[in-house]
Every structure is written in C-alpha cells, then in structure tokens.
Batch of 3 targets.
Target 1
Amino acid sequence: MTSAAETEAPPIVALEGVGKRFVKRLDVAMKLANMLGSDLREEVVQAVDDVHMAVREGEVVGLVGESGCGKSTLGRVVAGVHRATSGRMLYRGDDVSHLGDRAARDVRLKIQMIFQDPMSSLNPRFRVADIIGEAPKVHGIVGRGELDGYVDEMMRHVGLDASYKRRYPHQFSGGQRQRIGIARALAVKPEFLVCDEAVAALDVSIQAQVLNLFMRLREDFGLTYLFISHDLGVVEHLSDRVMIMYLGRIVEEAPTEALFATPNHPYTQALLAEVPRLEAKRRAYTPVKGEIPSPLNPPSGCHFHPRCPHALQRCRDEAPVLREIAPGRRSACHLNDRA
Amino acid sequence: MTTAAEPHSAAPAASPVEAAPEPRTVSPFRRFVDDFAESKVAVFGLVVLVGIIVLAVFAPWIAPQDPYDLTDFHERDARLPPGSERLFDAQTFTVTVPDLVPGQAVAIDAEEGVSVSNPFVDGLTVSAVLEETSDGRQIRLEVAADPAEALGLLEAAQLEDLPRGPTLTSGEKHAFRNLWTLTAEDFQDLAIVLPEGFDDEIDFRLRLTTSETDPGFTYWLGTDAQGRDMLSAMMYGLRTSLSVGVMSGFFALLIGMSLGLTAAYFGGRVDSLIMRIVDLQLGFPTILVALMLLAILGRGVDKVIFALIIVQWAYYARTARSAALVERRKEYIEAAACLALSTRRIIFRHLLPNCLPPVIVVGTVQVANAIALEATLSFLGIGLPLTKPSLGLLISNGFDYLLAGKYWISVYPGVALLITIVSINLVGDQLRDVLNPRLQR
C-alpha cells in the first residue's frame, strides 16, 4: 500500500492541540463536607491530552494503545460524539466548532463511526431497514420513494442480503450486526470513518471478512479511516500510518512498515515485543512491567517513566515533546535527544 | 446459504453472506409473548387478571344487582348469609283502610287502597266489613286466597292506628303503642270489636308480611348491612378499585417517566434537583403522605387518584432514570448522535422505547400497590365516598360485623382484593423476568 502521506493532499481531518477532560464535580454534600474541613477534590481525567494529528484523504491511520489510554475518546472527539475541551478540530481546513448549524451537521455526517460492540451499537427495537434508513430519511439524503431501494443498495454494499431488512438486530450474528452498523454509517455518504475497535468483538474468521470489507469500501467510496485498535496485527495489516497512544498522549507516529521494523519509543518497543507470532518458538513473554497508571493521577513528566526500562531523572521531571525524528516519523522520548 | 446466490451488482467483490440464525422474522413482541408463556403460573395469573378485568369492566351488564340503585335493595335483606334467596320485593305493604259503611265489604287491594306503599301479593285479597252486632260495632277482616297456596305466603299481619280501645279476637298488642301483631292463622278470621259509642270514621293501617322469596335471585355471597348483593357490590368495587389503580398508575408513570428521562438525559443540576425531590418523596411513608393529602383535599375519586399519583410518581422517576442512564451510555445512542439526529428524536425514538421494560415492570407492581393503598385509605374511612364502594370500603363496611359471625361482608371483598393483587404481581414478576436484560437469552 503506497502511503498517502507522501502526496500533497490537504488533511481531511486535523487536530490541533485537542484535549478532552472529564470532570466529576463536587455535589452539595461534598461541598458541605469541604466546609467542615474535609479535603475532597474534583476528580479530573485528562482522557486526551494535547493531541496534534492530521489525516490525509484516502489514508488509513491506525491508533493503538492499551485499554484506558484515551484512544476511544479521541475517536469520539473526531466523530463529534464528544466535544473537545481544548484545542480545535479542522475538517478540510474549517474549524468545526465555528460552523453554522447546517454546515456542522453536514460535517458530522461526513465523519461516521463504527463501534466496537455490534450488539449495543444497534437499537434493539428497530428493524434493520429502520436502522439503516432512519438518518437518510430524516436528513433528506434520499427521497421517500427511493428509500427502500437505497437501503437495499446499502445492505448489498456491505454483503448483507436485502431480504433480511425486516429483521431485528438480535436475529443476526456478530459479523452481520457489524455489517449493519457499517451500512448505517455508509447510508449518510460519509468520507471519513472512525472505526473504534470495530473488529475486536468478532471471531477471528469474521474479523478477516469485516477487515476485507473495510478495504473494499475504501476503494469503492474513497473513504479515509481512523482505525482504533489494541490489536497490532490488525493495524499492521490495514494501516498506512500508525500512532501509538499512552495515557492520553500520542507517543509515537510513523509509517506502518517503519514503525514495525524499527520502533523508536520504549513503549512501542515493549508493545511490539509482545505481539504473538506464528514463527515464534518457545519464548518467554516479558510483559510490560506494572499496570497502566490511573488517569486520575497520571505520573509526572513522561507518563511512561514508571514502567520504562530506560527511565532517567529527566523523564520524571519533564514531559517529552512529540518531535520529528526522521521524515514522517515522530516520537516523544527524551532518549532521542541523547543520540 | 441459498440467498447468497443473488447477484451483488453494486458490490461485486462482496464477501459471502453469513448464514442467518433462523429464517423466520420474530418481532420483539412475539418473542416477548413466547417468553412470557414459559411460566404457567404467570399465564394463570394473567388469565385470572383478565377475568377480573372483564368482570370489572362489564359489571353494569353482568352484575345481578345495581348497588347504586337504592330502590333495588332493601334493608330487610341486610346481612343475609351467602346462598340466601332474595325475599320478595312486596314483602311488606301497608294500606289505609278507607271509610267503612256498615254491612258493606270493602276490598283492600293495591288499586282501591287509599295509601298503598307496595302492591299486594298476587292472589291475596283482603276485605273489610263493618258490622253491627249485639256487642256493638265490629270490623271483620277477611282474607281470600286464589290460588289457595298463596295463603301460605302470609306470615304475619300488623294493625296500626285502630280506633281507641278495640277488642281483637286474637293478636297481641304492643306494650305501649297502638299496634297489634297477629300470626297468619289468627289474621284469617279476625274481628275487631270497636268500643261502645264509637261513631267516627274508621281509618287504620294494615301491614301484611309475606314470606315469598324470589327463586331467580340468590345472594351467592350474602348481603351487606344495606341489603346489597355482595357479589354485585364486589364487581362494582373491583371496577372502582381497578380504575383508581390503573389511572393513578398511568398518570404517575407519565409524570415519573418524563422527569426520570429528563434527569438522566440532561444530568448535572437538573438531575440533582429532580432526584433530590424523589428522595424527599420516598423518604416519607407512603400511607402518611396519602393520609395527609386526603385530610386536606377531602373525599372523592379524583382526590384519591391525585393522592396516589403524588405518592407514586417518584418510583417511576427513579426507575426510568436508572434505565435511561444505562441506555444512554450504549453505543446506539452515540451512533444516533453521530448521525446528527435531533435530541428530541434521540430521546423519544431511541432512548424512551428502550427504557420502557423496567418501567412497565414497576408499573404493574405499582398498580397493585395503588389498589392496596386505596383499599387501606378507604378502610380507614378517608378514601372513596360511600357512593363509590371500592373493595376497601366494602371490607371496612363488614369489619363491624366480623365478630358477630357475619364474616362474608368483609371476607369476600378481602379475598377478591387478594386475588386481584396476587394475579397482578404474578404477571408483574414474570414481566420482570422476561424484560430483565440480564436474563435475556
């Protein structure tokens, strides 16, 4: 796959310093307790912290990280489900938060999301035809008379038999449900798909089918993907470019082949060391030591330093900046400064 | 995979269609019915409940008696044990004997009597003759029966307001009133000897008591203190109880669910405010709040319903909120937001229908509670007015006679209440199992 990053296409989606904080505010009882001398604080989770990224048209960007690292939140910010608390998001150069109602709606429709759980992402009380057809009908994408044919067409695009459209989600297998979710997203003619662990809940054989479907749809509709996963194998197979996320920050970004060949950041190295390979003989797995720290109380400096085998004093004091270390490669590690 | 043979014109490279689990389209409702039918007890409860509802709804057409029609029941039928036959309508009747002319018989009957409070029994004729005898003047009363069996119906007779100082051939005078009581045999040939020198108009009242019963009307469950058929009263009582329960439940559900959904969807201060009111409401004992409200508002069906809504909406609000909190975090709501659907559409088309199951479960249980609470309030005498007998009121009415051995006035309405509430709860329990997402197959 030739990397689209090398061409001069304008970024379809760009994030500039995007952050997302979740704050659990104090309630009245807690405020009262504070007045009486206890020391309760608001709980703040910085799920996404100052993320800069750009996705060019036609690209497939993989976003990898452990669970709880904020990759899903980032995906939801891009898809417009969550509003970023800081920074700005540009769609084809326009700041999304400064658009009028209509334009904002159109941008929203252009960026669609495929969810992890194919069961809970479909309204259990709707028939397939309604699930796929609701948004096109409401937004007037197709006329009333053409809706039926349009739904059939969408179902065929994702490899579902159109005769099943009177059924309910629970009557389908996991893979079929995921296809319905994809058809629902396609039905509003999107340009950008955020796939949040879109195949993680599926059997391996079904995973391959759905991944192939994604790739085919990319060619048919000229789609751009942000592919969120914790499965490095899937990301390697699919992506042009990969970003590694750790505790709300992007720690490394590189073209797929380069990243898998020569991982730069110690966290990436640790992750890649753990990918099970078929050709591996008896080998001992050395898990990344320690648990992922609580995002409620992240470590100072580089978030990875408590688990990093190369940690220095500087790593504890100062957060490393995501810097270019080679053309098209960025990494956030103080070790690069020493070289 | 027969269907996969269809050409995928728009998607030539389509990966094979996965096999569908079953060929039949099963709507969620159909699945719900099948799941519900799995419990025989619940189906039995549902059948009983439907029967009770039919009885209540069609009470005016199927009840043997209209308990609101005061002319249709009589005090003499009061407190009859179950299985008693109804006494005939014209059991007692009173006539005022008109002016009597010596030697001339006057037939006393419904048409001729001056003041007839009830028509005569069919086949019985009574006539009066004023006679001059050696002893003085006397009135002879003669009873004729046609057919002869009709005479057997006569049980007793009473004469009232006779001229002062008469002598009767038989009969017993009341201790101090001018009232004579005679048995049926005595009455058949009765002479009233008038005091000497009595010359005035003769005018008195005759009351006959017959024992005829109406074989077509049996009080299967006895009668209450007013002589009302308990069975009919219970049917009408069920009608009142159920309608009060269902109406208060429905409105409490509407109010509670809107507030609960609002709290869950908007969160933050709105959520806190609504839920603190709910906490406050639930902190008070239900019966106490209802008692206070009714003490202020007074009696009446509307007031009872209002009081029940006030004490019940909080349960629905809490349930709806918790269901909505769970549903709101599901990805299909995010997907709907992603599809730029309006907030109103998301709440009402996506969120609300999926929050309904637990609310329906609470609803059935709460309707049973409302009926029980209404019965409690009526039993305490502050619920429904006497003209709207609910089951609770019927129980309350019979409570005084319980120790007198007249158990049926209280016990049967109590059993009816019990059956109603148990059947509703059986249905509600099964609904909870069927609609519980954790037990969902």
Target 2
Amino acid sequence: MTLIEARDLTVRYGGHTVLDHVDMSIDKGEIVTIVGPNGSGKSTLLRALIGAVPVAGGQMIRAPGLSIGYVPQKLAIDPTLPMTVARFMSLPRRQSPADVAAALEQAGVPDLSTRQMTDLSGGQFQRILLARALLSKPDLLLLDEATQGLDQPGSAAFYRQIEEVRRRLGCAVLMVSHELHVVMSASDRVICLNGHVCCQGTPDIVASAPEYRALFGTGTQGALALYRHDHNHSHDDGCDHDHDHHSHDKRTHDTGVTPLHRATRDKVH
Amino acid sequence: MLDDFLLRATLAGLGVALAAAPMGCFVVWRRMAYFGDATAHASILGVAVALALSVSVFLGAMIMALLMALAVTALSGRGYAVDTLLGVLAHSALAFGLVAVSFLSGVRIDLMAYLFGDILAVGKTDLAVIWGGAGLVLALLTWRWSALLTATLNPDLAHASGIDPKREQLVLTLALAVVVAVAIKVVGVLLIAALLIIPAAAARPFARTPEGMAVIAVITAALSVLGGLQASLMFDTPTGPSIVCIAALIFAGSALGTALRRA
C-alpha cells in the first residue's frame, strides 16, 4: 500500500529549479533512504512531502488520514521561549504523562523530562526529536539528516533505534543521510537524488549504478566503492536512462578498483 | 457600582493586561517587537479616519492596525529587510495619522489622549469594548494555543502535524490588532508595544513552560496597572506612562534578580 507519492513533482526557489519532475513513492513499512550531494534537493523533497514548500508542478498524493512524524535537520529554539522536554513532547497534541515517560524511556533518555530544551546536548536533542515524532504513532517517519552532530557510536545507536521503531510500530521510514555506509546497510531501498531521481532500487543496485558513482565516486578516491563488493545479483531494474560513463570509468580505473570489480561493472553497462 | 472613575480605570487596565500579556509572549517568542510597534503606531491613522467618518474609534484603530500588519506581512521578503520596512511603515503611518488628525478642524481632539492614553476617562461603553476585545483575544489564543505554539517553535514541525503556519500567523495578526485597539484608551498608541513586551520579558526568567510565562506575564501586567494607577494618583503623573514605568521597574527587578542568581 502506497502511503505517499510524488508524481512529476517540480519545486522552484526563485528562478532556480530545485526538484525537476521527481517521481517517487513510499510503501507501508519500508525504509527508504535519499542520498545525493549537497544542494541536490533532498531536504526540499522531504519538506515538499510534509507540504512546507509550494509545489510548482506535479502532484502529491497522500493516503487518507496519513500521520507523519517529522524529525527536522535542525531545530533552533529561541532562548526567549521556555520549553521543558515534557512540554515539547506534548506539542501539538497533549500526550498523557505516562506516554511521555514511556517514550523518553524508549529513547534512552528517561531523566530529561524536566530539563529545558535549550540545555540539551546535540545527541539528547536528536533523541527527544525522534521520541516526539514517534509519540503520534506515525504511519510514516521522515528523518532529515537526523544524525547530524552525533558521533559514530551515537549515530549507529540512532539507526538501530530506527530499525527497532519500524519493527515495533510497522511505520515506513524515509530518511536523508550522508552516512552512506550505514544507510546502505539499513535501507530497503535507496533513492539517489540530484535535482531529479538519478536512480533508485535496493542498496546493491544503486551502489553499483553509474549515476550513483558519478555523484559519489568523485573526490572520495574510490573510498565509497569499499562496500558491497558482492556483485552476484541481477541488474534488471534500477537505472533506465542513458548517461555518459566514459570519464568516470576511466577514473575508477585510475584509483585501482580490482579487475574483478571492473569486469562486473563492464558487464553491467 | 461602575460610577467610580477609579474603579472603571482599574477594570479597563486589568482587561487590557489580561489580553496584552499572553499576546506579548508571542510577540517576544516570534521576535515581532517592532511589528507590534508598527501596528500600534498605524492605529493613530485609524483614529483620525474614524473621527473624520464619525465611526467608532475602536473600529477605526483596529482596522488600520490590521491593514498595517497585513501590509508588513505581504511586503516582507520582497527586497527590503524587515526592520527597514517596519521603520518606514511605522513612522510613516504615525506621521500621516498626526497630519490627518490636524485636518479635523470641526472637532477639537485631545491628541495627547490618543498618543498616551486617557485611562481615567474610560466610560462604561469603553469598558464593555475593552473587556469584549480582551475576551475575544483570550478566546482566540486559548483555542489556537497548541497550533500557535507549534508554528512559533518551527514552521516545518507545524506543517508535518497538519498545521498551516500562515494561518496561525494570521490568527496572531488579528489578535494583535484587537489588542492595539483596546489598549489605545489605556496607554495610547506610543506605549502599547511596551505593555505587550515588558511583562513578557520580565516573566521569561521565572518561567519553565510557555504557559507559565504567559501566566507570569499576566500577573506582571496586572501589577503594573494597579501600581501605575496608584503612582499616578499619588504623584499626579500621567497614568498610561506611569503604568509602563512600573512594568519597566518590575522588568529591571527581574533582570537584576536573574543576574544575581547567576553570579
């Protein structure tokens, strides 16, 4: 069952087209990750899905009564606004103190309920944001680089929590992330975005797609080719449009990808 | 019972305090202090127009305040910085208002009464209008409280919960216009912003939640009204400014207390 679908979605800021005819959808219970370089429209796509940016073209179809939990990239709380963690958890809908306590317990921060939001550390703040988003029992959880500012154990714990949440609540998860190695292993499907949808599919397919490598291969000296070396899968879906791969094929060659690896890639393309 | 002018003045002041203080909290949280100022200054133009057309001053002030607020909202983000825009619009509206009042030769108007308020001259009708307006503002804020708070915290969080931040902004703008209109008689157009902002600012260090801050702000504003009226009688000073002076003293005490506690 499709929860939310963008059809031919176009978003413009000023004269600049940020999202260009984007088609994508999220099904019930899936974990989908959006990857893409800076300025590729990842956050804009998430904000378009919650209805926070005006749509210049195309349409957005939501399942009736869809409840969305949103964890923004960053949330600046004005110091003039006093806000305890417990009060924040009850916005916009009142939650029972027992539910709030249980949610904080689950997020691993049971003692914070009387603290001011502005006094929290980055990691605590992210956990509270996630806990609040989960309180409304969302059908779809949207995470915009939610592990920004967390150290590696912190973000690993955060992703474990996401999987746990999906298992417990059965909600779909759509996240934007830069931590490709974690994301690729934790997602059912990856959407590679750069103004338009470059390619999408299971992590294996996307990781070996030339469009993806064109975006992430450059500048990393082949470091991002470290994961997913098991190329024993079929390539019957994923990318369906032509790109010129000549230049970066040469580059991968230079950075010393194993012949086996290259042979597989050559077979694919 | 309402025949005593001092009682009427007290009730009028408390009514305005009740509406202005929670509204002022939003003005502070959303950093709209100059916005409140501009809206209030514009209302003098509304007063002039209302007097010229022989309609209710309250209505004229409210409509002009609302138009001003909508104009600022519509114009902001179109090439001018918001503070520049507010500086231009607020003072232009005040100047046009003062000029417009001078054209009204037929009636002799006590301009000072509109600029600084004339709380001691509040009549029974004024009292009804003030409490009606204050009740409307309180009802509006209570009804939309959670949505307003969420939209103030973060517009995207609001969107995700199905709340339209633009609509909530409009609710606040409307409430602000009503507060301005009812406060003219009490403190005058020049000092309305003070009654919005000072109680909220004084309440901030003592509050742990938004609701707590609104309640403390109301108490601060009410004490300012009572203290200002007394001071005005005792020292024979203008009442509106006296009320604002007491609020300022409470704010100074609050700031000083916070500084000492941290030291």
Target 3
Amino acid sequence: MDHQTTHTILTLENLSIGYTSKKGNAVIASDIDIELSKGQLVGLIGINGAGKSTLLRTLSGLQNPLSGNCILDQSPIHTMAPELVSRKLSVVLTGQAISKNLSVLELVSLGRQPYTNWLGTLTETDIQTITDVLTATDTSHLKEKKCYELSDGQLQRVLIARAMAQDTASMILDEPMTHLDLHHKASILKLLTKIAHEQQKLVLFSTHDIELAIAHCDQLIVLQNGKATINTPKQLIQDGVFDTLFPSDNVTFDSKSGRFLIS
Amino acid sequence: MKTNQSYTIPLIVLAIGLVCCFFANISLGSVAIPFSDVFSSLVGGEVTKPSWEFIIQEYRLPKALMAMITGSGLAIAGLLMQTLFRNPLAGPFVLGISSGASLGVALFILGGTALGISSTLSFGKWGLILAAATGSFLVFLMVLGVASRVRDTMALLIIGLMVGSLTSAVVSVLSYFSKAEELQQYIFWSFGSLGDVSWQSIQILLYCFMAGLILTVASIKPLNALLLGDTYAKTLGVKHTKSRIIIIIATSILAGSITAFAGPIAFIGLAVPHLIRQVISTSNHRILIPAVLLGGAILMLICDTIAQVPLSEYTLPINAVTALVGAPVVIWLLVRKKKLLF
C-alpha cells in the first residue's frame, strides 16, 4: 500500500490511553503517534491486558483519551457530536447483550439509524444499502431469520453487515474472530480484506490470532509495555518485535515461517 | 422496511379485539342491560330505563376508559423498562415508582394515627391520589438524580429494587403501629381499583397518559438502538444520557399517574409486552408500541370484566385478577414456544 500519506483518515497524536479515577490516572499506553489510511486492513495485537480494547474504545470515541488527540477526519473524535461520529466510523463489538429476538434484516437496518428520520423510516437508498451489504457479507439468505437461530460465525457476519450498513469510511472491530473455528476465522478475515481493499475503507481489528494477522494485514499495530508500534508485518518480523511479544520463554517466534512455537 | 406491511393485519385484529372487549366490558356487570340499550346509550340515543343510562354513563363508561388507559399506560411503561434495562423481568415499577406511591399512601393513611387525626376523613379520595402522586414523584426525582450520576444501567435497576425494599420496610413499621381500620383501608388501596372515578380524574389521567405517550413515540429510534445494548447505541449516534432520562421520565409519568389514580396494579406492565412479542414476532418499537398499547387495553378490559363477576353482586380486587388471568397465560405461552423472545 503506497497511498498511505494521501488518504490519512485516522490520526493518533501523542495519545495516552487509560482510565481516570479519584486517585489519579491509570495510564495503559502513552505517546502513541499513528496515522491510518483508507484502503488498509490493520491488525491490532498485544497480550491480554496490553490495552487493545481500551485503545479501540478510545479510537471509537466511547472513552476519552487521557491526553493527546484521536483525530477522525480532521476533528478530535471526543469533541464530535455522536451522530456525526456515527456517519464516519462504525464499530463491531463482542459480548454485547444484543436482543436475539431481532431478525437479521432488523439488525442490519439499525445500521442505517445515523441517516434515517426521527421515526427511523427507511428510504429507497437505505433499503438499497441494506440489500448490498447483505449480499457482500453473503447473508442475504438469512435475512428473515432471528438472531437466536444463527451460528456464531453467521452472527459475526451479520454484525459486520450492520456496521457496513452504517456506510462509514472507517470500521473498528474488537476481536471479530474470537470463538470461531479456523474455517470461519478465514471467512471473516477474507471479508474484512475485501471491505478494506475493494471498498477502500480503513478496517482496524484487534485479534489474538497473530499468525493470521501477520499473513493477511497490510499493517500491524503492536501494543507492548505501554507503547504502540506500527509497521508492515514483514518489517516487524525483521525488527524482532514478535520475539519479545510474550513475556516468558514458553513461546518463541520463528521468523522464517512467521509462526509461534511452544518451546 | 418492507416487513412493516406484514404487521398491519395483527394490528387491525388487535384493534377489532379492543372494540369487542370494550363493548363486552360495558355490557356485562351486576345489572343486566341489553346490548341494544348499551349501544344506544354510548352513541347518545334513547335508553329504555333511566337507571340504565345512569349506570352506563356514570359508572361503566368511566370505568372502561379507566381500564383502557391503565392497561395501555402500564404496558407501555413495562415495554420501556424492558428495553432500557435489557431485562425480560423488568416492569413499570422497577424504578421504585409504585413503592414511592405506596409509601405516600401509607404515610397518608397510617401516618394519621401518629398525628392523632384521621387524614382520609379530612381529605378523602383526592388526598389519597395526591399522596400517591407525591410519593411516586419524589422517588422519581431521586431515581433521575441517580440516573444522571450512575453510568451503569444495571446499577440503576438494583437501586430501584433497593428503594422498593426500603419503602416496604417503612410501610411494615407504619402498619405495626396503626389501627385495624386504617390498615384495612391501606390494603384496599393496594388491591387497586378502576371504578369510582370521576370524569375529572379521567381527564387529568388522560393528559398524563398523552404526555408519557408523546415522549415514548419520540424515543422510538433510541429504543430500537438500545436493543443492541448501551455501547452499540452510542456508536449509532444515540445521545445516551439524554435518551435514557427521557425514557425514565416517560415511564414515571405513565406509571406514577396511573398508580396515583388506580393503585399499584401488578403484572400488566410485565406481561403485555411478552404476550405481544409472542403474537407479533418483532422487536421494532415502531410496531411494538401500537401493539402493546392495544394489547394492554384489551387485557385490562378482560381482567376488569372478570373482576366485576357478571350478573353477581361481587367485585374482585383488580390486582388479584390481573395476576390470576395473566400469569397462567404467560406461562402457557412460554411452555408452548419454549423460548422467551426478547
């Protein structure tokens, strides 16, 4: 990807993330300077507790940064009106208590809320978008089904369809491949690649499947020891970032195959 | 959405059902009045006996209207709470609104002893209404204060339950020290009552009902977004705190005013949204709200018809009937479908 500088859409400037409490700030990661562009599939990796979810929540405007800025399309995201953010950035989360009584069509239609009137009436454009995203995610045949009838893999695709219906330039996903078997992981990863490359969107997702991320992402953000590094997977391997990713000697990284081995 | 079309028929069926239940409710009672006379009285025509005219116009019609407002209002309040808290067991009273009303009434009736006066003799029925309204309003203000401070919606639910426990404890203490006839009066209030209401009361209640309904309709979009949970709702552009407070205000106006006039009527608010979801399989509030309005009115009219035990002199407590009629229906529906659609 060589149009990195021309299509910058999400910029993190000197960003510190974490939580505020009465006792003071609990900093999880600081001095984060990253520029992300349209048309890229970016993976976010780091061990448990490294701050992947906190970073994604901050980037989505769900949580305020401790300091620094997260700039979405030229404005700091935490100062933007929620309805404005919802037209520029969509989010796919795991473990949310969504109503399983919703039909797939109803769920995906909710993605159009940023554009509909006060009653949520769908226009021709909205219906066209919904039809398109159902086709793109290969879920058209499921549209009359209720969410409780879906498998985990199907539900994940439908949730991604809902985010696509929001028609935003950026999409952020929190561990979209967790709890899925390899077949479904591959299908989600292919879908995300397609969204990033064919629809020219920024797709940023966190994952524990580091080997898959190394093989498929355009760029990887590695969160480690309160710092964030971004680069292409190839460069990160050369720099030896993965050799020190896990703290103990239980796991070693084989740079030739791009795989982790249990020693 | 194209699927909106397919919900028109169930809504029409519910509307027809409501009209039938309305006429049945007015026709049946301790005094047998022929249906032709009931109908002509309602449309302003001639009635065979003047006493029948009086019974219909001054007793049965206000009571039927009261039943409809109560049923619809509580059912809507229940739906709002179930969606806001994402909890199938939530009802209109989870915020402690009925506890507040009970406390107000208990202080009013039972607290009189402490002051050495009989408050109900001095102030009558309006005193009771005022006490209930004040009680629920104060609890509502408290909940609203907490809601703007506590971010976690679940914490709000638990606080509502705790307020309920606190007030019932105070009521117990008051009951212990009060006279038997006062206690009886309090218990009769807690049975709930739809009858014995003036047209003036219905007018006031109707204003409150409309206010609550307008806020509800204005919240349709945030309510639908909340079906995905708080976080998703925010990422869809919902102003979370503002929407939550509007929903709480709507619930409080509906449940508070109804409890003030009709007493704490249990079950309707919890059950009607579930019954409707079993009949009309959607979670879209654009469909659910009108359906729940109609369903609440129908169920309450049926309960009231049963409560007045047609052709006998007895009237059962409405609060007992709502539970006796509704609970088995919900259990049966769930056992049959084996799934709590929510």
